[in-house]
Every structure is written in structure tokens, then in C-alpha cells.
């Protein structure tokens, strides 16, 4: 137990170091091959130490984000998420938080969201934006598009939530969690051989 | 249809954020008065995602996950390449699921050997088969068993520390390696073979990953300089995805060898393709046709390694060297394509082509085995026959993941698939198609049997002890972990007192 607490503390402070190194004030994926929750090895180079990490790393980040959230409310942005079942989930985030941060920090009930934890290695934080919002978003990188291409229910105004950081003008916006596209197979029998 | 199913069930079984379930439906346990005991066989992404969904949407379901190895996570641990650690972050979500108080993990238990399907059916209301694909498709050509010829699957198992492949000892002393197949597994193998071990640059380099130590050593001493990926169809039919292709193109100290002639006429077709296929093909065309300038040109000229894609070639025969024992080359038939797009078929022509190589890896697909004669299995497709995860003609049996759909797809594919099967189970409980009226003994019964048979199951906290040892061993070498390679050792570590 003590070991976990110490590890949690260490990871929290490492997260603090990492936060200072983020691109501007935005927590989006930074630099080639680096990882939001990566850390510097002794050689000074970044590597992702998350492999097999326990949930204490996520907790470390949560603690930091919670602390951040308790600061001034004028840096707050409200976002509405339309979940797969049509339910609207309203959540608040800080300027610079990614939409993945918002989902995680608010414990939003979206199945399977953010599997790779914001490292551009999956497409589970896929969100659909309104056209007017979509046009104003920061342009998409090749790396994001590569992963978005594998997403289910891809639309013209799709983006990955871990790459979209909250700006003031996004206050009150609505995003949609895409539905798992059932491809044409639907209820067809697999391998029935009959 | 699937949207409606999901929405309906989510609405009925929602219990998060203080919302009431629909009036009159407070959760299945109180309605039926008994628990739902589920047994999941296989602890990879399919097993964990199915478990996650069941635990969330059934208020009293008890989920026991059985795994034949002492360690969980399946291909996330043993398949994902060591230089793709971000993909493995999903382990954190699986760990949370395993820590759920209604979820238990039992490693080192082989269903079909230590416990039978029949015995599990007596003890659980539902069995969910998520044991994936542990074998590979074979070429079926002469010379396939020569030395120096391996399946990509065993090679991946070797560098990822899969106990059964630790003694593979692949021969890496020749300059040219040929990989058969145009999928992501083939690209992974090519990239690992050609990756710089210690090139100092920002980012990941091989010796700081969780690659098995014996593999790192072997690759550091490897003479392989050229890797050719050979596929039987054309550029529009490749199965790999753009991220992995981009990594190959940007690989330090390596130059791409793509033939412009392979891409004649492709540029025209590309315009009308869906975006993912379009971008992937455009990237290949660019790598083949564009003359690099400046830094990139210099980099490629100075590169000591190279890799290439060969299209429209099918393997006919592996050619042995003079001693008759080792691979020296491969005879390929020249193909042409009939039809368009992803369903285009290859047709062999009269022409053949021989290529030299000292190492050959076949990467033509994984394959599932039937686990037990009582479980239906489609040998042609290599899957368990099912409908949305309900095993056909076998009430109480379900499946998800590769053994349900076939061995393709990334983690998000398996995630949706696992959820789909869980929804089928929940629907069946609700409709009565799955009978949960009788209470079942669950693990208590299995525990007694395992004890009788001298099997020592590894619990999740036992895995965490193994995890701690691996991380500690890795720290000494600046690696995220150094995997244990011996099953006995894993079981020993797992059963130690704190």
C-alpha cells in the first residue's frame, strides 16, 4: 500500500513536470512519439513509461486536474456531450484541457472512451462536431488523421477528442459521441455453414 | 439495429450518475432473484471488454476470467510491438475491470485441459469464448519447413517474450529477409528487424522498450539489411494501415524501395476511394514516385538499410541452399488481378520469379483452434459459428473477439465486438433465452476441481506481483519492464507472500 502511495506521489510530480512541457497551454499530443503521460529517462530522452502501469498513474493525473479545476472559474468552458443513447451529458473543463481530459475528469459515462489515454494510438475518443465549430478547430495533423481513418461512424466533422483543446469560444458547444456503426452484416450468421 | 439494441439496453441498465433506471426495472438481479454467473475464457481485449460491459450493465453479474498463461492481456502483451507502448495503455482500463469486486481473474488454467467446457457449463450460467487465435495459417508449399523459415506469429512471440517462443533462436545472419504478406504484422516485423538499436534521437529506440532481452541481443547482432514484403495482390489490396506505413517510410537509417511501375494507373482510381484507403494509397504512391530533395534525399542516400514492397507475387516453393537444410530463396508466381478494390482476386500466370533470401517470415494471418469437441467450430473460416456473439446451436455459449469474427482488426474493433456480445448476453437474460433461474456454483466448484488436479491458479494480485518483478527488473536496464519468460517462474512469483 505504501509503495502505491509513494508511486502515486512520484507520478503526480512527474505529471507536473510534464505539464510544464506541454505545447503552449494545451494538453494535446506533443512532439513526435512522446506521450502525454510519458516521462524523461535518465538519458534525458522521453519515453512512455505507461506500459503495464497501474491505475495510480491515471490517479496522479486526476489529482493534478482536480487541483487545476479548483482554480478560477473564468477559465471554465462548458461542453455538452450527446451520448450514444441520446442522453445529454454536460461537463466543465479548463481552458487548454482536451476533450478527453473533460470526459475523464468528469467521469462521464461513455463506454470505452480514450483507450490509449490520449497518445494517438486508437480512435476511441472519436467525436462529431457541429459544422460551425468544426470549421474553427485547429487543423488536423497527419498523425491524428491516420488514427481517425480507423474510427467507427466517421463523418465529415469528425475529430479525435484527445487532440481538441478547450478554447473560450467553445463554451456551450455540443459534441456527439458516434454510434458504433453496425456494418452491413447486422444480424447475419457468422460461419453458420448451414 | 445495433444502435437500437445498444440504446435500449443502456437505458434499461443505466445506473451511473444517480440516474434511475426505467420505472419498474431496477436491474436484473432483483427481477429474477438470482445472480448471473459468467465465465470468460481468454483474457485479451475481447475478454476484458466483454467483461467490462457485462459488469457495468448488470447489477449483480459475477464475471470470472480464465486464462491459460499466468499473465493476462493476451495480444496486448504478446502481440503489440514493443515500440508501440501507447497502444498498451488499454491495460490500465483492463486493470480497472479486473479490480471490480465482481470480477476475478484465474491465470494458469487451461480450459480444455485443466477444466472442461462441460464442467464450466455446470458451474456458470453463460460461457463466453474469447480465446483468440493462437496459431497461424500455413503456406502449404514445398520447403516451408526449412531452417530459416518462420511464421511471423512465432517471431512476434519471440521478441515479445511469449514463453512458448523464447527458444526460437531465429537466424539473422543474412542480409535479405523476405516477409510474405501485406498486413500490419508484417510491417511490425520489418520495422523491428530494421530498427536502430541505439540511434540517439528524441523518442523511442529499441533498447528502451519492453522487447525481450534475448531478442534485443539477437537483433543488435543481426546482419539483416534489406526486408522485402511480398504480397499476392496489388497496392489497392494491402491490409496494413497508414500509421504503420508512415513509420516505415520515416524509419531512421532506412530507405524505401517501391517501384513506380507498380503504381501505374492507380493514381486515377484513388480519387474516388473512401478516405482511409485513399490516403494510404496516396502515401505509397508518393513514396514510390516522388523524388526526395534536400535532407530527405541525403538521408536516404546515406541509409544503410532498405525495405520494399513487392506486389502480385505468390509463393510457390521455398528454395533450399546447397546443404538442403536452410532457406536460400523463394520461387514466386507472377500474378495478375481480376476485379477491383478490396475484393479483387489474384490469378497466377505462367511466369515465375526467384528471389534470394536467408530469412523468410510468413505473415499471412493468424488462425484459431477449436477448444473442445462440444463447441461448434467452422474449420473453413477458422471461427466459432455465431450470430452477434451467440454461438449457433449452443445455448449458454457466446464468443467475442478474433475467435468470433476472424483474426483481423485493431483494439477498437475488438472493443465494439466485445460490447456487442455482452449486449447479446444481457438481451438473452432479459428475454429468458438464457436461463438464470437456477443458481450456479461458479468458481467454488472449479476451485475444488483445480485443487484435485494439482493446478495452481494465478489471481490478479498474483499477476501484480509478477508485474512488479518485471518492472523492477526492467528498471535496471532503463526499460519499462523485463518480462519473465518461464511459466513456472511466473507461478512461483505469483504465489509468494507479500
Automatic annotation (TrEMBL), chain A:
<comment type="similarity">
    <text>Belongs to the adrenodoxin/putidaredoxin family.</text>
</comment>
<dbReference type="Pfam" id="PF00111">
    <property type="entry name" value="Fer2"/>
</dbReference>
<protein>
    <recommendedName>
        <fullName>2Fe-2S ferredoxin-type domain-containing protein</fullName>
    </recommendedName>
</protein>
<keyword id="KW-0411">Iron-sulfur</keyword>
<keyword id="KW-0813">Transport</keyword>
<dbReference type="GO" id="GO:0051537">
    <property type="term" value="F:2 iron, 2 sulfur cluster binding"/>
</dbReference>
<dbReference type="InterPro" id="IPR018298">
    <property type="entry name" value="Adrenodoxin_Fe-S_BS"/>
</dbReference>
<keyword id="KW-0249">Electron transport</keyword>
<feature type="domain" description="2Fe-2S ferredoxin-type">
    <location>
        <begin position="77"/>
        <end position="181"/>
    </location>
</feature>
<keyword id="KW-0479">Metal-binding</keyword>
<dbReference type="InterPro" id="IPR012675">
    <property type="entry name" value="Beta-grasp_dom_sf"/>
</dbReference>
<dbReference type="GO" id="GO:0009055">
    <property type="term" value="F:electron transfer activity"/>
</dbReference>
<dbReference type="GO" id="GO:0046872">
    <property type="term" value="F:metal ion binding"/>
</dbReference>
<keyword id="KW-0408">Iron</keyword>
<keyword id="KW-0496">Mitochondrion</keyword>
<dbReference type="InterPro" id="IPR001041">
    <property type="entry name" value="2Fe-2S_ferredoxin-type"/>
</dbReference>
<dbReference type="GO" id="GO:0140647">
    <property type="term" value="P:P450-containing electron transport chain"/>
</dbReference>
<dbReference type="GO" id="GO:0005739">
    <property type="term" value="C:mitochondrion"/>
</dbReference>
<dbReference type="InterPro" id="IPR036010">
    <property type="entry name" value="2Fe-2S_ferredoxin-like_sf"/>
</dbReference>
<dbReference type="InterPro" id="IPR001055">
    <property type="entry name" value="Adrenodoxin-like"/>
</dbReference>
<keyword id="KW-0001">2Fe-2S</keyword>
Amino acid at each position: 500500500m505504501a509503495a502505491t502511495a509513494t508511486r502515486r506521489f512520484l507520478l503526480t510530480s512527474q505529471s507536473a513536470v510534464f505539464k510544464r512541457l506541454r505545447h503552449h497551454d494545451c494538453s494535446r499530443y506533443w512532439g513526435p512519439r512522446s506521450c502525454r503521460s510519458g516521462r524523461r529517462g535518465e538519458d534525458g530522452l522521453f519515453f512512455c513509461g505507461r506500459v503495464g502501469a497501474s491505475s495510480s498513474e491515471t490517479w496522479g493525473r486526476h489529482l493534478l486536474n482536480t487541483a487545476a479545476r479548483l482554480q478560477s472559474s473564468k477559465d471554465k468552458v462548458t461542453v455538452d456531450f450527446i451520448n450514444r443513447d441520446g442522453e445529454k451529458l454536460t461537463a466543465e473543463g479548463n481552458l487548454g484541457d482536451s476533450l478527453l481530459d473533460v470526459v475523464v475528469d468528469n467521469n462521464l459515462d461513455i463506454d470505452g472512451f480514450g483507450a490509449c489515454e490520449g497518445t494517438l494510438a486508437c480512435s476511441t475518443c472519436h467525436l462529431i462536431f457541429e459544422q460551425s465549430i468544426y470549421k474553427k478547430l485547429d487543423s488536423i495533423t497527419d498523425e491524428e488523421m491516420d488514427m481517425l481513418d480507423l474510427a467507427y461512424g466517421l463523418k465529415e466533422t469528425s475529430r479525435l477528442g484527445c487532440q481538441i483543446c478547450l478554447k473560450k469560444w467553445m463554451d456551450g458547444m455540443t459534441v456527439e459521441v458516434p454510434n458504433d456503426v453496425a456494418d452491413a452484416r447486422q444480424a447475419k450468421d457468422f460461419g453458420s455453414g448451414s | 439495429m445495433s444502435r437500437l439494441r445498444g440504446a435500449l439496453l443502456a437505458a434499461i441498465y443505466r445506473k451511473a450518475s444517480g440516474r434511475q433506471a426505467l420505472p419498474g426495472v431496477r436491474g436484473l438481479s432483483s427481477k429474477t432473484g438470482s445472480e448471473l454467473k459468467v465465465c470468460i475464457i481468454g483474457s485479451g481485449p475481447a475478454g476484458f471488454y466483454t467483461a467490462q460491459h457485462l459488469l457495468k450493465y448488470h447489477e449483480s453479474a459475477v464475471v470470472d476470467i480464465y486464462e491459460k498463461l499466468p499473465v493476462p492481456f493476451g495480444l496486448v502483451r504478446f502481440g503489440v510491438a514493443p515500440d508501440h507502448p501507447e497502444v498498451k495503455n488499454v491495460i490500465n482500463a483492463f486493470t480497472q475491470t479486473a479490480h471490480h469486486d465482481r470480477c476475478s481473474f484465474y491465470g494458469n488454467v487451461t480450459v480444455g485441459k485443466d477444466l472442461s467446457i462441460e464442467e464450466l457449463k455446470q458451474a456458470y450460467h453463460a460461457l463466453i469464448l474469447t480465446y483468440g487465435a493462437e496459431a497461424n495459417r500455413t503456406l502449404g508449399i514445398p520447403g516451408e519447413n526449412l531452417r530459416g523459415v518462420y511464421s511471423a506469429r512465432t517471431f512476434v512471440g519471440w521478441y515479445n517474450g511469449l514463453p512458448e517462443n523464447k527458444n526460437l533462436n531465429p537466424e539473422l545472419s543474412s542480409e535479405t529477409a523476405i516477409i510474405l504478406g501485406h498486413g500490419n504484422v508484417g510491417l511490425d516485423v520489418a520495422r523491428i528487424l530494421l530498427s536502430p538499436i541505439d540511434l540517439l534521437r528524441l523518442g523511442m529506440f529499441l533498447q528502451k522498450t519492453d522487447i525481450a532481452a534475448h531478442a534485443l541481443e539477437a537483433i543488435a547482432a543481426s546482419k539483416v539489411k534489406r526486408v522485402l514484403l511480398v504480397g499476392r495482390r496489388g497496392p489497392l489490396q494491402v491490409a496494413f494501415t497508414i500509421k504503420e506505413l508512415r513509420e516505415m517510410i520515416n524509419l531512421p537509417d532506412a530507405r524505401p524501395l517501391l517501384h513506380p511501375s507498380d503504381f501505374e494507373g492507380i493514381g486515377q482510381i484513388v480519387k474516388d476511394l473512401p478516405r482511409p484507403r485513399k490516403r494510404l494509397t496516396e502515401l505509397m504512391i508518393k513514396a514510390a514516385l516522388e523524388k526526395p530533395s534536400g535532407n530527405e534525399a541525403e538521408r536516404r542516400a546515406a541509409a544503410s538499410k532498405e525495405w520494399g514492397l513487392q506486389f502480385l507475387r505468390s509463393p510457390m516453393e521455398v528454395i533450399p541452399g546447397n546443404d538442403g537444410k536452410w532457406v536460400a530463396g523463394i520461387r514466386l508466381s507472377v500474378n495478375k488481378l481480376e476485379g477491383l478494390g478490396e475484393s479483387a482476386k489474384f490469378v497466377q500466370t505462367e511466369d515465375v520469379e526467384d528471389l534470394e533470401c536467408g530469412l523468410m517470415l510468413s505473415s499471412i494471418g493468424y488462425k484459431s483452434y477449436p477448444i473442445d469437441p462440444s463447441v461448434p467450430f467452422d474449420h473453413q473460416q477458422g471461427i466459432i459459428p455465431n450470430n452477434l456473439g451467440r454461438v449457433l446451436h449452443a445455448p449458454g455459449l457466446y464468443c467475442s473477439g478474433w475467435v468470433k469474427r476472424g483474426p483481423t482488426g485493431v483494439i477498437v474493433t475488438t472493443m465494439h465486438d466485445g460490447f456487442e456480445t455482452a449486449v447479446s448476453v444481457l438481451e438473452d437474460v432479459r428475454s429468458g433465452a438464457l436461463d438464470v433461474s437456477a443458481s450456479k456454483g461458479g468458481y467454488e466448484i472449479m476451485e475444488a476441481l483445480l485443487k484435485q488436479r494439482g493446478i495452481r491458479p494465478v489471481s490478479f494480485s498474483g499477476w501484480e506481483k509478477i508485474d512488479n518483478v518485471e518492472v523492477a527488473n526492467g528498471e535496471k536496464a532503463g526499460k519499462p519492464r523485463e518480462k519473465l519468460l518461464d511459466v513456472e517462474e511466473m507461478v512461483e512469483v505469483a504465489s509468494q507472500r507479500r
